[in-house]
Amino acid sequence: MEIESSIKNKTCNKCKQVFPKTKEFFYSNRMYLSTICKSCDKKRSHQYKIKNKDKQDAWLNKHMGLEINYVYQSLTRPFKNSSINPKPMKNGYQRTGWNPELTLEEMYEELILHIELMKDKFPETDGRLCRYCEEPWTYIRATGGRQNLKNFSIDRFDATQTYKKNNIIFCCAKCNSTKKDSTKKDWLKYLEIDKEING
């Protein structure tokens, strides 16, 4: 009975608690389960990141700065549950969640079409240009909590509608931030006021 118990269970080398010997409680590679439980592993990883912040930042800048990684992270963000069903913020503000009406593959296809469009418009470029300001975007990871305003971003052209075909604009973070939730009605009003002021 004791042998059977030792086979079915595993003791974490860190917290010394006994858990079922499964992937639910221990991370694994192809052959072995970790010697510490997932909870202890997460704590150890968190402590390592705090103690080695410079190394972590250097690694992230190297890998997340690459176009394929940065773009993939940006394209998948609208499909995450935290984006579709956002939780209220500490100050009580409730951000609107948007359920995309296209797939991730279709979102990527829209990006390819954007790049081809900008290439046609500006043949001397690689097409990786903001649709609004027509300046090149970058893929530089934010440091110190500050977003790089030249970075690649995805905007909903009509802020009252979700992510779908003909409502996705690939742009830089600065233009996305400047436009925010303004609508066509707002833009027409701005032009109306401009005409009143400047004739």
Which helices and strands, and how do they pair?
Elements: H1 2-8, E1 9-11, E2 18-20, H2 38-51, H3 53-64, H4 67-76, H5 81-84, H6 104-121, E3 152-156, E4 168-172, H7 173-179, H8 184-198
Antiparallel strand pairs: 1-2, 3-4
Describe the structure.
The protein starts with a helix and ends with a helix. It has helices at residues 2-8, 38-51, 53-64, 67-76, 81-84, 104-121, 173-179, 184-198; strands at residues 9-11, 18-20, 152-156, 168-172. The model is unreliable at 1-6 (pLDDT under 50). Helices cover 44% and strands 8% of the residues. With 199 residues, it is mainly α.
What brief labels describe this structure?
199 residues; mainly alpha; Herpes Virus-1; two-stranded antiparallel ribbon; two-stranded antiparallel sheet; 4 strands; 44% helix
